[in-house]
Write a structure and sequence with these properties.
Belongs to the GcvH family. Pfam families: GCV_H (PF01597). This protein has about 130 residues and is an alpha+beta fold. It has 4 helices and 9 strands. β1 and β2 form a beta hairpin. The longest helix is centred in the first third of the chain and has 7 residues. It is globular, with a radius of gyration of 13 Å.
Length: about 130
């Protein structure tokens, strides 16, 4: 599991781990809990360009369908094939094995992103 205080968070309940010009993106435990049992994940293809604020994928659960928004603009350099094969990994380990995509970015600046404390305030103390 990642150090949750080192991550950035979005109002769309995504987490972002920055490592130089590469960011790893996933959804938070809070989002996974709200969705329920995740049964299908549709992610952008490696090599695709994602645009900040735009839909780049879909997450389906037994309760609903949710959209995955790109928090940054960049090129998808890796997708988590294990999550595509077994979407329940999102529920089991949202901040670890349940990561979704890795994106190469020119700037890791995320407009409107929260630190951990800000995200917890947004969700009423739940992550």
């Amino acid at each position: 599991m990642a150090d949750l205080t080192s991550l950035l968070y979005t109002a769309e309940h995504e987490w972002i781990a920055v490592d130089g010009d590469t960011v790893t993106i996933g959804i938070t435990d809070y989002a996974a809990e709200q969705l329920g049992d995740v049964v299908f994940v549709d992610l952008p293809a490696v090599g695709a360009t994602v645009t900040a604020g735009q839909v780049c994928g879909e997450i389906e659960s037994t309760k609903s369908v949710g959209e995955l928004y790109a928090p940054l603009t960049g090129e998808v350099i890796e997708i988590n094939d294990a999550v595509v094969e077994d979407p329940s990994a999102v529920n089991a380990d949202a901040f670890g094995d349940g990561w979704l995509i890795k994106v190469r970015v020119e700037s890791a600046s995320v407009e409107g992103a929260f630190a951990r404390d800000g995200y917890l305030a947004l969700t009423g103390g739940e992550a």
